[in-house]
Amino acid sequence: MVRSQLDFVRQQGFTESEPIVTQDLYAALMFQPRVIGVVVLAGILLQNPEVFLVLSAVLWWSAFVPSHNPFDAFYNRLIAPPRHLPPLRVAPAPRRFAQSVAATLALAIGAALLTGASTLAWVFEGLLSGGMAALVFGDFCAGSFVYHLLQTPLLTKKRPVSPSSQRFSPGMTQRKPGFCTYTRPTR
Questions:
Q1: How much is the pTM?
Q2: Which of 32, 100, 106, 166 gives the lowest tally of CB atoms within 10 Å of its CB?
Q3: Which of 61, 69, 68, 6 is nearest to 32 (CA)?
Q4: Are 171 and 183 in contact (CB under 8 A)?
């Protein structure tokens, strides 16, 4: 497994101690963002508010009722069994938070398009498509990253898992997998 893929899996709330942290889990977790990426691209090209409003509703449903996530259900019923892969389990909190961030952006785009605020819609479309590009092509989930930032106490200088978490600055040590702690260099 490539380091960025492992970081992505950890950002989503899965740990290395879980037996299913493999290339198969990475592929399963990427199924939803790839489908959403295609829907977002279609919505941007069509400038259709209904596309974004439906996407928002599906993502909110996935975040609030993770045991009935339609993307995971599709994967678990139609993709995993023929390939003899383990099913995806219910989404951990970082993944659900990222879904709610994407749902909020899709809702904002749909509302902006409905009200004729095309410039605002383009701004939100840029944010959503940029986040999707970072996720699909760079294995970096901004929504999960923000979740971890909000979960880290502000007074501690811990940094959540990011693509560059393996490159430490002088004075940084890794105390807990995925987190870096800054310590003052001694003179």
A1: 0.78
A2: 166
A3: 69
A4: yes
DSSP state letters, the chain:
--HHHHHHHHHTT--TTSTT-SHHHHHHHHHHHHHHHHHHHHHHHHT-HHHHHHHHHHHHHHHH-GGG-HHHHHIIIIITTTTTPPPP-PPPHHHHHHHHHHHHHHHHHHHHHHHT-HHHHHHHHHHHHHHHHHHHHH---HHHHHHHHHHS-TTS-EE---TTTTSPPTTEEEEETTEEEE-PPP-
Does 12 score more than 80 pLDDT?
yes
DSSP 89-108: -PPPHHHHHHHHHHHHHHHH
- CA 85 to chain centroid, in Å, comes to 22
CB 141 within 8 A of CB 98: yes
Helix axes 3-11, 142-151, angle to 10 degrees: 60
Q: State the residue for tokens 């092509």.
A: 137
What is the pLDDT at residue 94? Answer: 93
Token reading at 96? 């659900």
d(CA 2, CA 148): 21
Among residues 166, 182, 124, the alpha carbon closest in space to that of 3 is found at: 166
